[in-house]
Design a protein that fits this description.
Distance between the termini: 20 Å
CATH class: Mainly Alpha
Number of domains: 1
Largest sheet: none
Order of helices and strands: HHHHHHHHHHHHHHHHHHHHHH
Helix content: over 70%
Number of strands: 0
Radius of gyration: 21 Å
Structural class: mainly alpha
Length: about 450
């Protein structure tokens, strides 16, 4: 057998829907998991819009801001995801997701009482600890709720929690920060996650029956067997490389795009906020205005890109084109550097905000295809582990080092360019990582048809 993409092999038929679950149960479950994932990103990303107020009050450098948005969160998020995922292969996944939501929400509220960098860093570590249990268990559940033909769309719907959470985090965080301060923003956004976690614990369906769960504990592959299965999949390895590169670029961009606008377009934002007040009577400060606008851009364009990627991939897979899991995100990744260059190099505030919509759309296209591919590359009882290992590298390298790298580059460039141009060129230089992502996706394309098993 060759690695040629045109090689004809038999692909196992998708398994039937879980017994005892009606279409209404599945819709409720998918909606609940979407809302939990949305709050996951509200609590994860809210620090981005609050970065400048936090920096001023606590006297931080850009590298410290980068560590708060990336490294502090990623260290424990990445390392705990695997043992929690192994637990999820055997235990009740609903309870894992619910308890995770309650934990990260409590630590988000704690961020609001931090008095220095160390305390805030440790509180963000707590957020990462809580969120470590969400994604692997949730994606494993979704794969049990749906058939392979609808898996990319279902996981794309789940992944729409990323732009939706970023929207809510930026808008709500910015508005609360304008009126009550950044500390109140952390405290107030933590409350809904606690309530939703409790609701999920008592109402979310777990497809595994008690008898299936009991027998499954004996049939679940050991960690060594799971690693052996994953290590033999060249597609999985290349998709992991692609995910790391995409995460590095996306989290770097999200962490500092607000800082870029507040430093390079402060005057333009003030003018736009004044015009908004004249037209509507709504009074917003720069942070509240920018949070609202960027939140809408990230939310709307990100949701559109996520939906588009999932729907296009499902249609292509239904026609037998399994390569779409890789080619669709590869095309989007290749276009991203050019879209970001145009956005960050323009001096016109309105043009820059409008141009930001295109990279937000493009960077969201890959969510549905890549997660659906990973879930399809392994047996059902290895899915949570596959996702956890996949996200271990993506978060430790992409999330942990991406924002930190931008912060370090910005601090160095600021010595000669000033803080505005320093952050601009730090963001532009790191956007070239998307080319590596596109190359990795195309490498995965060569073997994906052979490697898909479920």
């Amino acid at each position: 057998m060759t690695d040629d993409a045109t090689t004809t092999v038999s692909v196992p038929q998708p398994k039937p829907q879980p017994k005892g679950m009606t279409i209404h149960h599945r819709r409720y479950a998918l909606t609940m998991l979407f809302l939990i994932y949305m709050l996951n990103f509200v609590d994860r990303q809210i620090v981005n819009i609050l970065a400048e107020p936090i920096k001023r009050e606590l006297g931080l450098m850009d590298w410290q801001l980068g560590s708060l948005t990336g490294l502090s969160f990623a260290i424990f998020y990445a390392t705990l995801a695997l043992p929690i995922a192994r637990w999820a292969e055997r235990a009740n996944r609903v309870r894992i997701v619910a308890l995770s939501a309650i934990t990260w929400s409590l630590f988000t509220a704690v961020c609001g009482v931090a008095q220095n960098f160390t305390q805030l860093f440790l509180a963000r570590v707590g957020v990462g600890v809580g969120e470590a249990g969400c994604t692997p268990a949730s994606q494993s559940l979704i794969s049990d709720y749906t058939t392979r033909e609808k898996r990319a769309s279902a996981l794309a719907f789940f992944s729409m929690g990323i732009p939706a959470g970023s929207l809510v985090g930026m808008v709500v965080g910015g508005l609360i920060a304008d009126s009550l301060g950044w500390r109140a923003s952390f405290a107030l956004v933590g409350v809904p996650g606690i309530a939703l976690g409790l609701l999920a614990y008592f109402t979310l369906p777990e497809p595994r029956t008690s008898s299936v769960a009991a027998s499954g504990a004996q049939s679940t592959p050991s960690l060594r067997e799971a690693l052996s299965e994953l290590g033999g999949k060249r597609t999985y390895i290349w998709l992991t490389v692609a995910m790391v590169a995409m995460s590095f670029g996306i989290y770097s961009n999200l962490a500092f795009q607000s800082s870029h606008f507040l430093r390079n377009h402060a005057e333009g934002l003030g003018v736009l906020a004044a015009r908004l007040h004249d037209l509507t009577g709504i009074q917003l400060g720069p942070t509240g205005f920018l949070g609202t606008v960027l939140g809408l851009i990230v939310g709307i364009c990100g949701a559109a890109g996520t939906w588009l990627g999932g729907r296009a991939t499902d249609r292509a897979v239904a026609r037998g084109s399994l390569n779409a899991y890789a080619t669709i995100p590869a095309a989007a990744a290749l276009c991203l550097p050019f879209a970001l260059f145009a956005t960050y190099l323009t001096s016109n505030t309105v043009a820059a905000l409008c141009l930001m919509g295109l990279p937000m759309l493009l960077q969201s296209i890959y969510y549905g295809p890549i997660f659906a591919a990973v879930q399809s590359l392994v047996r059902p009882r290895t899915r949570a582990t596959a996702t956890a290992i996949f996200l271990f590298f993506a978060n430790l390298i992409g999330l942990g080092l991406g924002p930190l790298s931008v912060g370090l580059i910005s601090d160095v460039l600021a010595r000669s360019m000033g803080s505005g141009d320093g952050i601009r060129w730090a963001l532009i230089s790191t956007s070239l990582v998307y080319v590596l992502a596109a190359m990795a996706f195309m490498a995965a394309r060569k073997t994906i048809r052979r490697d898909i098993v479920s």
